[in-house]
Design brief:
About 10% of the residues lie in helices and about 50% in strands. It is mainly beta and about 450 residues long. Strand 4 and strand 5 form a beta hairpin.
C-alpha cells in the first residue's frame, strides 16, 4: 500500500455506489480486447482520489518495557484536472495539473495533522524523469508541506499503462504489472521481492457503460519513506471500452511496517485507495493553450524555489530545493545542504536587540578567535538595502582545525524585529552555494513583531 502520510494515498473505502453486471456487451465472453490508453501531448482527464486508513504502530520505549501502541487513522481527498504536456530535454514525462480540492487529515494517537495546498499555487507542473517525480508551480513557490501532500500522488501516465497489457487479451488471461506501476502504487524506493499480477476478469456493464473488469493482486516487500515494509494489495479496475480510458481503480491494502533489524512487524495499517477518472472534453481555462502560454513549464532555479513561512516564529524566506530546513528551536532556524555540505543559521531578535553590521562583525570575530580559527579574508559590511527593510552583508574566510570555510553574514532589520544570518560554506563548494545564500537572504522578511523572551 502506498506511503500513508499523503493526502491521496490508500485508506478505508469511501462509499461508492455503482451498478455492475457481468452481461457481455460489445466484447464477447471469450473475445480478445485491446486495453490501451494513449498518453500523448494534449490528452486530458479529471481525477478524483479518495482515501481512508486506520491502524496501529508500536513505538519503542525504555529497555525492558513493552512498546507503546499508538492508534493511527487518516483520510484524504484530492481532485484535479490534468493535461499531458510534450516532454522536453530534461524530462521523460510531464503533465500540468490543476488541483480543485485537496484535503488531508491524519491522527497519530492524540496528535492531529492537517494539510492542504494554497489556492494561489494549485496549478502545478509534475515531471517524471527515470524514477524521480517532482512538482512545481509556475504561479509561485511551494512550501515543503505542499510538496509532501501531493508529491506521492500516483503519476497517472506511468501507473495506468503499467497496469494494462502489451497486447490484446481474453478473459482469464493474466500479466505482470510493470515495476514502475508497482512503485507508483506502493511508493517503494526499493522493491526487494514480490510484485503485482493483473487479470482480465471479463467484460461487464457498469452504470450502463461497457467496461473490461480487471483484478490486481500481489504482495510486495521493500523500503519506502516509512522504512522496511510489506504490502499486500488486492483491487479492481475498470477500463471503459468506449472512451479508451481506465476510469476506476480501487486497491484495498494491508501495510505492515517492519523492524529494520529483526524484520518483525511493528505496525499494521489497513486502508483503501479509490481513483476515478473521466475524460475532459474541453480544457478548463487554467489548462488552456492561452493560459499556459508564456509560463515557465520547465523546472529552473527560480520556479523550483521553496517557501518557508512560519507565522509563529515570524519569518518567511525562499530557498533552493538542494537545501532542507533542519532544527527550529526557540528563535533559530537551521538549513543544511544535502549534497554540498553548507549550513545556514538564522536567528530572530526584537528590533532593539538587532546589532549593526559593524557590531555583528566584531561579535563574530571575537567568537572565531575564541574558537582558535584563523581569519584570512574579511570584507567590510556593505548596505544592500536601506530602510524600511534594511539589509547589510559581510563575509569572512576562516581556517578551522580541519576545514577552510567561507562564512557569509547578513543583518536584516525591520520595525517589528530583525534577523542575523550566518552561512558556513565549505571552501570547495562555496562558489556554487553563494548564489543560494543570496536567494535566502534577499527574500527574507520578518512577518510579525518579535518580542523579548521573558
Amino acid at each position: 500500500m502506498p506511503h500513508v502520510p499523503s493526502a491521496c494515498r490508500p485508506g478505508i473505502l469511501f462509499l461508492v455506489v455503482t451498478v455492475v453486471t457481468s452481461l457481455p456487451g460489445r466484447a464477447g465472453a471469450q473475445e480478445r480486447v485491446t486495453l490501451a490508453e494513449g498518453f500523448k501531448a494534449g490528452h486530458a482527464y479529471k481525477v478524483d482520489v479518495q482515501t481512508r486508513m486506520t491502524g496501529k504502530l508500536a513505538l519503542p520505549t525504555e529497555k525492558g518495557k513493552p512498546p507503546q501502541i499508538v492508534p493511527i487513522s487518516g483520510m484524504g481527498r484530492c481532485t484535479y484536472d490534468e493535461r499531458i504536456l510534450d516532454p522536453d530535454e530534461l524530462t521523460n514525462q510531464k503533465v500540468v495539473r490543476a488541483y480543485r480540492e485537496v484535503e488531508f487529515k491524519r491522527v497519530n494517537g492524540s496528535v492531529v495533522q492537517e494539510a492542504g495546498v494554497r489556492p494561489s499555487v494549485r496549478r502545478m507542473v509534475v515531471i517524471r524523469s527515470s524514477d524521480r517525480r517532482a512538482p512545481f508551480s509556475p504561479d509561485g513557490p511551494l512550501t515543503w508541506g505542499e510538496i509532501d501532500v501531493v508529491r506521492v500522488n500516483e503519476f497517472v501516465p506511468t501507473l495506468v499503462p503499467g497496469l494494462l497489457p502489451d497486447a490484446a487479451v481474453k478473459p482469464g488471461q493474466t500479466w505482470k504489472a510493470t515495476a514502475a506501476a508497482v512503485t507508483e502504487l506502493t511508493d517503494m524506493e526499493k522493491i526487494e521481492e514480490g510484485g503485482l499480477t493483473v487479470e482480465f476478469v471479463g467484460p461487464a456493464t457498469v452504470d450502463g457503460k461497457q467496461v473490461a473488469r480487471l483484478r490486481i493482486s500481489g504482495t510486495v516487500r521493500g523500503v519506502n519513506a516509512d522504512g522496511p515494509n510489506r504490502q499486500k494489495l488486492d483491487g479492481t479496475a475498470y477500463f471503459n471500452l468506449d472512451s479508451g480510458l481506465l476510469t476506476y481503480l480501487s486497491i484495498r491494502g494491508s501495510h505492515e511496517l517492519l523492524d529494520g533489524t529483526s524484520g518483525q512487524t511493528v505496525g499494521v495499517i489497513e486502508g483503501q485507495f479509490i481513483m476515478t477518472r473521466s475524460p475532459l472534453p474541453q480544457l478548463p481555462a487554467d489548462l488552456s493553450d492561452a493560459s499556459l502560454r508564456g509560463l515557465g513549464l520547465k523546472p529552473d532555479v527560480e520556479n523550483t524555489l521553496l517557501l518557508y513561512d512560519d507565522p509563529g516564529l515570524g519569518v518567511r524566506f525562499l530557498y533552493p530545493r538542494g537545501w532542507r530546513v533542519g532544527a527550529v528551536q526557540g528563535k533559530q532556524v537551521t538549513l543544511d545542504h544535502a549534497r554540498l555540505g553548507g549550513g545556514i543559521l538564522i536567528t530572530l531578535e526584537p528590533a532593539a536587540k538587532v546589532p549593526s553590521a559593524d557590531d555583528y562583525l566584531r561579535e563574530v570575530s571575537a567568537f572565531l578567535q575564541k574558537e582558535k580559527a584563523q581569519v584570512t579574508v574579511v570584507t567590510k559590511p556593505v548596505q544592500v538595502r536601506a530602510d524600511p527593510f534594511q539589509l547589510d552583508r559581510f563575509t569572512l574566510d576562516a581556517v578551522f582545525e580541519k576545514e577552510t570555510a567561507r562564512i557569509e553574514y547578513a543583518v536584516l532589520k525591520q520595525a517589528g524585529g530583525g534577523a542575523m544570518v550566518a552561512a558556513r560554506l565549505p571552501a570547495a563548494t562555496a562558489a556554487e552555494l553563494r548564489a543560494d545564500v543570496e536567494r535566502v537572504v534577499r527574500s527574507m522578511a520578518v512577518t510579525k513583531r518579535i518580542e523579548e523572551k521573558k
